[in-house]
């Protein structure tokens, strides 16, 4: 069963990587505009993902006469809200394990301290095994919260939206509130950055000091990367990320102010009826060093001499 889970996890990670790579549509410059190559437009990714999404954008932009800017906004909102339950489900699993681990910090603290203080491979191995056993005994399994299925389902939509915003014919020459969607825009880049920083800030509101210390750097990296990519991309793509940032903020509000309080109450009730299992500290398994053995050997002659002197005294008596 364990081997099957490992194989499925590996398959999921590999599949996610392939989907990520498949989103790279080959492009070239034509009349100063970056467009997909002829070969790329005939490719599987473009035909199955990008082309239908481009038609969806065209539906709002041309058929409803809303323009390409609003077309990108509406399509992004529709797709993001459709897959929001998947994102919330994945976030719930990972956040629940994080909250449970934080609640059990007093149980794991001595084991973590022993692991940090380990000076030999044997001590480190014993401490790691003890920590893993304590986590298992108390129902902690971070790998269980890292399921690949929700990510695999979301990736095609993200790939299609990104490429549709970048390469739908007509977007490169369209404007949105006076902003040229075919060129980088500082305004839309700042809007995208603000929403992703806001999402990060909200996520830290319910974190413990330890969680902030360990996770803040990773959390900040997301908005920074969005700003860099938005500034390097056409405004149509940055607009897609900005609208996606709005949905991310909504998702984070649900997680922080609705899910987390309920999680903590559930965890308290769980351990109220089933108290945490305290772990035993690992035994000192460090092998005796040659120096210690040498000291014992040095002590041996003295013991013999002491015994000889005592026996001589006993004879004289």
TrEMBL record:
Keywords: Cell membrane, Chaperone, Lipoprotein, Membrane, Palmitate, Protein transport, Signal, Transmembrane, Transmembrane helix, Transport. Residues 303-317 have a biased composition (Basic residues). Its main location: membrane. It holds the Pfam family 60KD_IMP. The chain crosses the membrane at residues 68-88, 142-162, 182-202, 214-232, 238-259. It comes from the Bacteria. Residues 271-317 are annotated as: Disordered. It is found in: Cell membrane. The keyword Cytoplasm does not apply. Residues 1-27 form the signal peptide. Residues 68-256 form the Membrane insertase YidC/Oxa/ALB C-terminal domain. It is a multi-pass membrane protein. NCBIfam families: PRK02463.1, yidC_oxa1_cterm. PANTHER family: CYTOCHROME C OXIDASE ASSEMBLY PROTEIN COX18, MITOCHONDRIAL (PTHR12428:SF65), OXA1 (PTHR12428). Belongs to the OXA1/ALB3/YidC family. Type 2 subfamily. Required for the insertion and/or proper folding and/or complex formation of integral membrane proteins into the membrane. Involved in integration of membrane proteins that insert both dependently and independently of the Sec translocase complex, as well as at least some lipoproteins. This is Membrane protein insertase YidC.
């Amino acid at each position: 069963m364990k081997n099957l889970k490992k194989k499925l996890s590996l398959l999921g990670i590999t599949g996610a990587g392939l989907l990520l790579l498949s989103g790279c549509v080959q492009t070239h410059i034509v009349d100063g505009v970056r467009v997909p190559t002829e070969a790329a437009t005939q490719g599987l990714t473009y035909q199955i993902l990008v082309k239908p999404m481009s038609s969806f954008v065209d539906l709002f932009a041309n058929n409803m006469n809303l323009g390409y800017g609003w077309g990108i906004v509406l399509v992004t909102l529709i797709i993001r809200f459709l897959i929001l339950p998947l994102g919330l489900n994945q976030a719930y699993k990972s956040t629940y394990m994080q909250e449970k681990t934080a609640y059990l910090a007093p149980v794991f603290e001595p084991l973590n301290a022993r692991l940090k203080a380990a000076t030999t491979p044997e001590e480190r191995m014993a401490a790691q095994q003890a920590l893993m056993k304590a986590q298992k005994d108390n129902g902690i399994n971070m790998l269980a919260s890292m399921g690949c299925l929700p990510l695999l389902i979301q990736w095609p939509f993200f790939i299609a939206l990104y490429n549709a915003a970048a390469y739908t014919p007509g977007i490169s020459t369209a404007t949105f509130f006076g902003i040229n969607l075919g060129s980088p825009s500082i305004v839309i880049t700042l809007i995208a950055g603000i929403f992703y920083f806001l999402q990060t800030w909200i996520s830290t509101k319910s974190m413990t000091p330890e969680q902030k210390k360990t996770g803040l750097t990773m959390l900040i990296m997301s908005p920074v990367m969005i700003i860099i990519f938005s500034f390097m991309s056409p405004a149509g793509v940055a607009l897609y990320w900005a609208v996606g940032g709005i949905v991310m903020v909504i998702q984070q509000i649900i997680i922080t102010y609705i899910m987390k309080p309920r999680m903590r109450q559930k965890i308290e009730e769980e351990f109220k009826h089933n108290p945490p299992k305290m772990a035993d500290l690992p035994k000192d398994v460090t092998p005796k060093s040659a120096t210690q053995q040498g000291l014992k050997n040095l002590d041996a002659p003295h013991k013999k001499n002491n015994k000889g002197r005592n026996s001589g005294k006993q004879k004289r008596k």
